[in-house]
Amino acid sequence: MLNKIILQGRLTRDPEISLVGNGIPLCRFSIAVSGRRGGKSEVTFVDCQAWRWLAEHVKQWFSKGQEAIVDGELRIDTWEKDGKKGKSTYIQVNDIYFCGKKAEHSPATTEFTEVSLEDGDVPF
Fold this sequence. Notes:
Distance between the termini: 21 Å
CATH superfamily: Nucleic acid-binding proteins
Radius of gyration: 16 Å
Number of domains: 1
Structural class: mainly beta
């Protein structure tokens, strides 16, 4: 089976990073992707998640309004809260690339926290 998505768009907000589980970094952000449907232009807003070193990379180098290419997989999580069922659809980011003007590619001015990974956390 193949689950591969490549999108080009602009970040709609600054990436937000948090530590989950055993202190593993998770970065959440969204991108706006422009397209055409029936002769009209439309924008699709796509939620994205990056983990571990990639989460730190996104937080450090990307910010709201910056253009990027996201390479990843479609994920759909189901959940239940207070008796109500819900569904979350997002892109699990495997890689992210700079796109657009070179001047946009400078480190973000927000704080950057260095996180060391244990040997068991290395994905290879």
